[in-house]
Specification:
By secondary structure, chain A is an all-alpha fold. Chain A is 73% helix and 0% strand. Chain A has a domain at 73-297. Chain A has 16 helices and no strands. In chain B, 43% of the residues lie in helices and 20% in strands. Chain B is globular, with a radius of gyration of 22 Å. The chains are: A mainly alpha, B alpha/beta. At the A-B interface, helix 2, helix 3, helix 6, helix 12 and helix 14 of A face helix 1, strand 2 and helix 3 of B.
């Protein structure tokens, strides 16, 4: 086994992922064909559903916001050599923090509630990541195991709170009352209406721009600060880090706190932006999709942005597909997502050797 | 707004025209083509062999009897509920039936946006002039099942396995426990919940393990209210030679001789009726509560469990049923606080 062939940078970052994506879509088309629908029609419906109208784009970016927060969370931990599977639980508890602020301070104007909710979401999410982080840093308990377990603890805690404590009296559904109007994250259509531009209504809201800001912040922190350098050194070689005077346990805890805080911001989009109440299971698996998004985006904020939009488009376009073609149900959408993850993650090197041959480079033998 | 360059848009329009032509050709077959109902299943999915599936059966019956297509959608996340309702409403659907309590807030939002569209919600309450709220008195059928369990139990210990610890499932559990104690005041009711996430409704392995653990503690009749997970509960009871009680749909046929009875909830009838009423113009908004009296809930007795229910048990059950209907026997309802 020799090392995989090195491709030109543009092919490595642009062409290869595109080829992988294309292969996944072609295979999805075959499955659609087997189900008895035209892959061509299905592809158009999906594309139009995701990007063909203002409403579709709104939903796509709204889903992408969730995936950006959780994707960034996974990436930050990854740079410190940690695999944070606990994004789901951190997002759940972070949302509890933002939601509690929204419930208590909802009568105040948004410029007061908003920052408090951001802070509370990040703080709660970070707090939920603290125990696994500390156990990893000081006791060597593997972070993959502890964060998975913390997902279940988070779910149990939230079910208890929503069923017994926070539930709006006299209803079946375990969810809180609606937040006060001051706690609604301004929606994109409202913001643009003030600027004189009319947008079709969608759940897209200010949290999208917060997610973009978070991506920029992560980029700066990881690649442009001394702390980011320490983070990457710990991730690549702990012995070297110690030799350089960096304390790996401290960096591990700090990285996980930041990771948890980023995941904890999901509630800003999902609860303050769209649902306007705390409801059961609101992260809806976004914490796990974040892992795929981070891997596909090569753990770089810009890549994560692109991957998040892709998964947002798959979610929105897929629901449009299930809506318009009765033979295609929601499980088919999961199949397509699975194929994209498979080709862009596990099989990413399939096209590397042929591409290298095309470029006249020496491929892997 | 067209975001697409012309070739694709053109292709799409051609498709749309094609679709319209196809509809025109089919027109003679679809008589009341103007009427278009829709049903939205919640996250459990249409094929959960239990609650959602029962609703789907109701829609299928309507389609079979009238030839009118019922559009459907299964949601995968919270945001899709209102989105799907909006889409259906914008495409000229007259009645939208939402299945499951978690859709209540989405129905409320959508019903305000589309006051001319009829909405129905099963297992939830929305107080708006264009919403019909259909609820069941599950505690009544659970009470009868609790009685059956206590009468059939030799050990005096009966089990309950719920999906998630949410108010609706507590309603089942409370009715069941009350029924068991009504027959045998010293009966012991052992309760377990499967989990704390939506995965709890679809985890037969865990259902089977919990059932085995209850059987190990001396339980010999187990009632499940856990959707698809219940399959594991019933299988474990059969393997151990014990009895189980089915839920929502009539599940007596699954393991004849081992399934004591089922707490039947006629979601299918309710869905069928509300769509039919909307078609015939007799639909009314407001709350609808279906209990034993309305035959909305019941315990199931058929050829598969005939041998398990002795004439003495049946007489006692029917007496209790009549008393509940007449109001002589009050079944306390679990109240969400």
């Amino acid at each position: 086994m020799s090392a995989p062939a090195k491709l030109p940078r543009w092919a490595e970052l642009g062409l290869l992922p595109l080829l992988n994506l294309l292969a996944a879509l072609v295979l999805s088309g075959v499955v659609v064909k087997i189900l008895g629908e035209s892959p061509w029609v299905a592809g158009q419906l999906m594309l139009r559903g995701a990007l063909g109208s203002q409403e579709g784009i709104g939903y796509t970016l709204y889903y992408a916001t969730n995936f950006m927060f959780t994707g960034l969370a996974v990436a930050v931990a990854y740079h410190a050599g940690l695999f944070n599977i606990g994004g789901e639980g951190q997002a759940y508890i972070g949302g509890l923090g933002s939601g509690l602020v929204a419930l208590w301070l909802g009568h105040l104007p948004f410029f007061v509630v908003g920052p408090c909710a951001v802070f509370a979401g990040a703080a709660f999410g970070a707090a939920w990541a603290l125990v696994p982080a500390w156990l990893q840093a000081r006791r060597g308990s593997h972070i993959v195991i502890t964060t998975i377990m913390f997902n279940f603890i988070a779910a149990s805690l939230m079910t208890y709170l929503l069923v017994n404590v926070l539930i709006k009296p006299g209803q079946q559904s375990p969810e809180t009352r609606e937040f006060g109007a001051g706690a609604f994250m301004p929606s994109a259509s409202d913001v643009f209406a003030k600027l004189g531009v009319t947008l079709a209504p969608s759940p897209l809201n200010l949290a999208f721009f917060l997610a973009l800001g978070a991506a920029a912040l992560v980029w700066m922190l990881v690649w442009r600060t001394r702390w980011g350098y320490a983070l990457r050194v710990v991730g690549q070689n702990q012995d070297a880090a110690v030799y350089a005077g960096i304390s790996p346990p401290r960096v591990i805890v700090q990285a996980m706190l930041l990771s948890g805080a980023l995941a904890g911001c999901l509630g800003l989009n999902e609860l303050l932006g769209a649902q306007h109440r705390i409801l059961i299971d609101f992260p809806g698996g976004a914490g796990f999709v974040g892992i795929a998004v981070a891997l596909m985006g090569r753990n770089h904020p810009f890549g994560i942005f692109l991957a998040a939009v892709l998964f947002g488009a798959l979610a929105q376009g897929g629901s449009q597909l299930a809506f318009d073609l009765p033979k295609i149900n929601r499980d088919m959408v999961v199949v397509i997502q699975g194929l994209v993850i498979l080709f862009c993650g596990a099989l990413e090197n399939v096209f590397r050797a042929p591409l290298a041959a095309v470029f006249g480079l020496k491929g892997a033998k | 707004m067209e975001f697409f360059p012309t070739p694709l848009a053109l292709a799409f329009r051609r498709l749309a025209v094609g679709a319209i032509c196809a509809t025109v050709q089919l027109a003679p077959r679809a008589v009341a083509a103007d009427f278009s109902p829709a049903i939205i299943f919640d996250m459990g999915g249409k094929f959960d062999k239990s609650f959602n599936q029962s609703a789907g059966d109701g829609a299928a019956r309507f389609k079979k009897e009238t030839g009118i297509e019922v559009r459907e959608f299964e949601v995968t996340n919270a945001a899709q509920r209102e989105q799907a309702m909006t889409r259906f409403a914008q495409r000229g659907t007259q009645i939208i039936v939402a299945i499951g309590f978690s859709q209540a807030s989405a129905v409320e939002a959508a019903a305000k946006k589309f006051p001319h569209v009829k909405f129905a919600i099963v297992d939830g309450s929305v107080d708006l002039p264009n919403v019909q709220s259909i609820n069941f008195r599950e505690h009544e059928s659970s009470f009868l099942c609790g009685m059956t369990a206590a009468m059939a139990s030799k050990t005096g210990k009966v089990g309950f396995i719920g999906g998630m610890d949410i108010p609706l499932i507590r309603k089942f559990a409370a009715g069941y426990a009350a029924g068991a104690k009504f027959v045998n005041p010293s009966a012991e009711v052992i309760q377990n919940m499967i989990g704390t996430t939506a995965a709890a409704w679809n985890d037969p392995t865990k259902g089977s393990e919990l059932a085995k653990s209850q059987i190990g503690r001396g339980v010999d009749v187990i009632f499940h209210a856990a959707g698809n997970t219940g399959g594991g509960v019933m299988q474990a009871a059969k393997d151990a030679g014990k009895l189980s009680i089915g839920c929502d749909s009539n599940q007596n046929y699954l393991h004849p001789g081992s399934v004591l009875t089922s707490a039947v909830k006629r979601v299918d009838v309710a869905v069928y009726q509300t769509i039919l009423d909307a078609k015939n113009g007799t639909w009314k908004a407001g709350p609808i509560v279906l209990g034993l009296a309305e035959q909305g809930v019941d315990y199931a007795l058929d050829e598969f469990n005939r041998k398990l229910i002795t004439p003495a048990m049946e007489a006692k059950l029917n007496q209790a049923k009549a008393d509940i209907i007449a109001g002589k026997l009050k079944v306390a309802e679990y109240k969400a606080k």
